[in-house]
Amino acid sequence: xxxxxxxxxxxxxxxxxxxxxxxxxxxxxxxxxxxxxxxxxxxxxxxxxxxxxxxxxxxxxxxxxxxxxxxxxxxxxxxxxxxxxxxxxxxxxxxxxxxxxxxxxxxxxxxxxxxxxxxxxxxxxxxxxxxxxxxxx
Length: 137
What we know:
- This protein is an alpha+beta fold.
- It has helices spanning about 40-60, 100-115, 115-125, and strands at about 5-10, 15-20, 25-30, 65-75, 85-95, 125-135.
- Helix 1 packs across helix 2 (about 100-115).
- This is Putative redox protein.
- It comes from Moraxella cuniculi DSM 21768.
């Protein structure tokens, strides 16, 4: 198992500056004025993880992709803790002669096998769904 180290430094109010294990800084703000909220970062982390997988798999499949966008829609519980209950990822993939079956397989592989964030959130009871749109370049 790999050990990772990160750090958060309180700035003021509910604003923190985080340093990731790779040394990148991010502003985190519960009030959403100086940065994204912690829950927004979880949503972006899921989208980033899944998008990374889709791009990697599509490139290995020799698909000529020009742009990949992941639009996320999430629902949170009303009570405390206000966890995500449902998250939908909509991939918009632009490219030349994109094969629909290759894209569908890439998204499925990400969801079922490769995306650690998806696996972790699903294990915690979050219902994660996906769909896609292909745009010709």
